[in-house]
Amino acid sequence: MKLCILGFGAVGRGVAKVISMKKEEMKEKYGLDLKITAVTDTSGAAIYDEGLDPNLLLKIKEDTGKISNYPEYGISKISNMEVLHKVDFDCLIEVTPTDIENGEPAKSHILKAFNDKKDVVTSNKGPLALSFRELAESAKENNVQLKYEASVGGAMPILNFAHDTLPSCNIKSIFGILNGTTNYILSRMAKEGSSYEQILKESQEMGIAETNPAQDVEGTDAACKVVILANSIMNRDVTLKDVEIVGISKITQEAISLARNEGYLIKLIGEISEDTLEVSPRLVREGSPFAVDGTLNVATLKTDLAEDVTVVGKGAGSIETASAILSDIISIYKSKE
Amino acid sequence: MRLNLVLELLDIPGQLIDALEPIGRLGANIVTVIHQRDVKTERGTVPVQITIEGDKDTLDRVITTLENRNIQIMEVDGVLRKEKIRTILIGDIVDKDVKDALNRLNVFEGVKVVDFNLKMSDDPEKSASKIIIEADYGKRKDIMKRIKDVGISKGFLVINEV
C-alpha cells in the first residue's frame, strides 16, 4: 500500500515513526507492505515511487527542517496539489495544519484525492467540522473510504469503536473530555491551587499548550470534536456554528475550591445529546469516570442496549495520534483483502 | 410494616423483573404491583407502583439495593423524593445581584435553594458562589437549563453538573 503524507509536523512525523517501528510487524501480521511514496512540508516534498526511508525522512527534517533536502528525491517549492497530481499512491494521509475558518487547504486535498479514487486517512479537524457531509458524500460517490479516528481524542478509540464495535446499539448521547490541554490545566489548578494564568504559562513553556492557546482554552478545539462525533456517530447534520461554546479562561481558583468542598471537580465537557450540542465547564464527581487527570481524554457513550460505555486514552501526542492513523490504514487495507 | 413505592422504569424488556428480583430475595413480600405500560411519564419512562411488606431492616435493605441497581425510586409512601442539584456561578455577586438570581430560582415549582456558599476574591469578578438546590425527583435536566438561563441572564459564568 502506497502512502502520500501531506504535512510533516508532529502528527506527520509520528506517522513516519510508527511506520518505521511497525513495518515488519505489519507484513507478518497482515501481509501489509507499507510504502511512503511522498511526504510534503512547507519547503516542498520528497517523492519516490519505490518508497522513501522513514528514518531518513525524520533525520532530514530534524537536522535541516526541510523535507526538500531529502537526498536525490527532494524537490523544493512544489505545492501539495502538484504532489497529489504527480505521485503514485493508494491512500492520502492528510495531516497539514488545521484551519477552522474554512478547512483549507486540507479540504481541497481530500476532495482531490477522492476524485482520483484514492482513500483518505486524516487527523485534520477543520474540514471535518466544517464540511462533514460534503466530504462523506464525495467519498461515497467515488467509492473510496474516509477515515478520521485520529481527529477525535488522539489515541482514545471512539469513532471506529462506535461504528465497528457497537453496531448493534443506537448512541443516545455522548459526554466527554475532548481536549487534553484544558484537562491538563484544570487538573493542575485543582491539585496545586495556582491560578489559571500561571498554569497556562507553564503549560506553554512545557509545550502542552500552544503559543496561541485560544483554540484550546476557548473550547473551539473540543467543539470541532463535538461536531465530528455528532455527524459521524449520531448521524446529525451540524457544523461548528451549531455548538454552544464556553471555554475555561474564566475559571477561577475560588470556583475550583468550592467544587472540591462538595467532592466535585471542574472539567471542560463536550455534550452531544437530544437537544444539546455544547462545550462548557461542568461539575463532575470525584471518582467518576470523568475525573481523569493530565492530558487524558474520556468519553461516555449512552446506548440503547449496552447502557453506558466509557473509553479513556491519551488525547494528544505525536505517536499516540499516529497510532490511530495507522489503525485506520490497516482497516482500509483489511477491507480490501 | 408495609411500604408503598413508585419506581420509574425504562420501557424495555426485563426492567420489571430486575426491580422485583431483589425484593423477594431479601425476604420482603410483594403485596401488589401495578404496572401499566401505556401510562408514561413526561420522560417516556413507566411508573410502577409496588407495595411491599416486611420488617423495617428488610425494607431498608430493599431500598438500598434498588438504588445500587440504579432503579429510580420516585415516591416512598406518597412522598416525592428529592434530588440535589449543584451549580457554581463565577462573577461579581454584588454587581450581578446573586440574591436576585436565587430568588428567581426559588420561585420555580418544586425547587428550593437549600445551601449557598461564597468564596470571595480580591478581584470581585473572580468570586464564586455555590448553590445547592433540592428539586422533585426527575426534574434535573429541566432545572439545570433554568439555572443556566437565570445565571447567564445575570451575566454569570454557569458551571452545572454533568
Description:
- The complex is a heterodimer of chains A (337) and B (162).
- By secondary structure, chain A is α/β, with parallel strands linked by helices.
- Chain A has 2 domains: 2-155 and 318-336, Rossmann fold; 168-314, Dihydrodipicolinate Reductase, domain 2.
- Helices cover 42% and strands 23% of the residues of chain A.
- Chain A is built from 12 helices and 13 strands.
- Chain A has a 7-stranded mixed beta sheet, with helices on both faces. Chain A has a 6-stranded mixed beta sheet with strand order 9-11-10-8-12-13.
- In chain A, strand 6, helix 5 (125-141) and strand 7 (146-147) form a beta-alpha-beta unit.
- In chain A, helix 1 (10-30) packs antiparallel against helix 2.
- Chain A starts with a strand and ends with a helix.
- Chain B has 2 domains: 2-80, Alpha-Beta Plaits (2-Layer Sandwich); 82-160, Alpha-Beta Plaits, CATH 3.30.70.
- Chain B has helices at 15-25, 56-68, 98-106, 140-153, and strands at residues 2-9, 29-35, 46-53, 72-76, 79-80, 82-90, 111-119, 128-136, 157-161.
- A 5-stranded antiparallel beta sheet of chain B has the order 2-3-1-4-5, with helices on one face. In chain B, strands 7-8-6-9 form a 4-stranded antiparallel beta sheet, with helices on one face.
- In chain B, strand 7 (111-119) and strand 8 form a beta hairpin.
- Chains A and B meet through helix 11, strand 10 and strand 11 of A and strand 6, strand 8 and strand 9 of B.
